[in-house]
Specification:
This protein is α+β, with helices and mostly antiparallel strands. It has five helices and four strands, in the order H-H-H-H-H-E-E-E-E. A four-stranded antiparallel sheet has the order 1-2-3-4.
Length: 208
């Protein structure tokens, strides 16, 4: 009989874990399976405790309660630690992303600005014309502003005019300061920076 109880508990707990599995947050599955395992242990005690004398019943229940308390305490500490580690890693990732975006945008904008100011005054091309020319002829320039489709962060053209170029750099996976901020990609709350180029220079702004 005990074999069936053990087998049934293992099967139900395992099924609960895999049916509620979340590739992003494993704790959802762990918590769900832990609740099922606890319910199973309670049911196991209720259905089998009648076979024990009163003294053993009291000892068994007391040991079970103490065990559940310490397991819950350890579980809570592990959850808090993993949550803290996740938040810390995301903050680090956000700072790295801002740095990567600033470097790429800075390199691209300065290249456009350098080409603009190195022209002769006669028949001077606009910022937009120089940008379009670089996009067509300079693969290094294109690579600076382009991430592969699977990469995060991303860079978007916001404004292209004769006197102003505006680019938005956005992280696709890391949250910024404001969770309600509307990002350029349509997402919400992600890290985002803005680079604005005019003939006077480049202005950078951390938008979220």
């Amino acid at each position: 009989m005990i074999f069936y109880w053990l087998f049934g508990g293992i099967v139900v707990t395992t099924l609960t874990f895999f049916l509620s599995i979340d590739n992003i947050n494993l704790w959802k599955s762990l918590n769900a399976s832990a609740i099922v395992a606890l319910a199973y242990c309670i049911a196991l005690i209720i259905f089998n405790i009648k076979h024990f004398p009163v003294k053993r019943k009291i000892i068994l229940v007391a040991v079970f309660i103490v065990g559940v308390f310490f397991v819950f305490k350890s579980w809570s500490l592990a959850y808090e630690q993993s949550t803290w580690q996740k938040q810390t890693l995301l903050k680090i990732r956000g700072k790295i992303s801002r740095g990567v975006l600033n470097v790429r945008l800075n390199n691209a904008m300065l290249q456009v600005l350098s080409n603009y100011h190195s022209q002769a005054d006669k028949n001077k091309k606009s910022l937009k014309e120089i940008y379009n020319e670089l996009i067509k002829t300079d693969s290094g320039f294109v690579e600076t502003l382009k991430f592969s489709q699977d990469d995060s962060p991303m860079i978007f053209n916001k404004v292209l005019s004769d006197t102003e170029l505006v680019f938005i750099g956005q992280e696709m996976a890391v949250k910024g300061r404001n969770p309600d901020f509307a990002n350029a990609s349509g997402k919400k709350g992600m890290v985002q920076v803005r680079a604005t180029l005019t003939s006077k220079g480049v202005k950078y702004e951390s938008e979220n």
